[in-house]
Give the backbone structure.
Amino acid sequence: MKNKNNQTNRTKTTLLLKVFMATMFLLGAAIFTYPFMADAINNYVDQRKIEQYQKKIAADKKKTHERQLKEYEQKNQELARSSAIPGMGTVEDPFENAVRNVKNPDKTYYEKHMIGAIYIPKINVSLPLFDETNDLLLDKGATLLQGTSFPIGGEGTHSVLTAHSGLTEKKLFTDLEKMIPEDLFFLEVAGRKLAYQVTDKTIVLPHDIDRLKIDQEKDLVTLVTCTPYAVNTHRLLVTGKRVPFPEQADKQIKQTARHHLLRLLLLLLGSLLVLSLVGYWIYRKIRSLQKVKSSLKENK
């Protein structure tokens, strides 16, 4: 009888150890997959924001578009006349000196500052674009550096768009370093679709802004992020010149948005599968223990 009780206790102990190991495995898997899951969820949310913006644009249509574009064009003309180096006296570096005086905003705050979207198919970037740089907006998408041209195109404009790299919850511009000359990226602002082809990629110190000058004969956009990863002592600048909007661009944009949805679905299905397998394994072990107990009772 004593041997049977010892056998039962050993079986219970073995089961508890295995359940503990399974729990630790799940915990480790959760920690490992968290950045991927968080990024996938955040990107999915971004796509919904962009879709809402596009629906709003479609509803407002010409009247609002024309007013916005006229306002942006006027600001760009004033900027081109006033200074050859944008950003002087406003924001010297978008990451060290971003505006920090906004607290606990609601949904309308982000809607108010959203002016469009940026798409970089090569690195699967599809982000909302905001009209100023501050801590809150940098966490949500790409931002326009204050004092630079609004990204609506036109000679004598140079827009500077910034975004973080290496965030745990969101990749944003983390893969910007993979861009090379002739790669394309696209903007959609106030109903206007623009295409830019990378012409230059360079790394500079945070306050080296000479490369952000306006060239009166060019239509430029520079993408900016911190580098190297987790050190952030320098800034990566990827500059593109305006090119005709390609016929296949809309297809590439849709594929980029679809990539994030499929990625989220695969991660969710994978997580569900792992949880189901571990749950089934624990269920089998518990059933096995119950059978041992039943067998011991029958043999009393």
Q: What stands out?
A: Residues 87-92 have pLDDT under 50 and may be disordered. The longest strand covers residues 192-204.
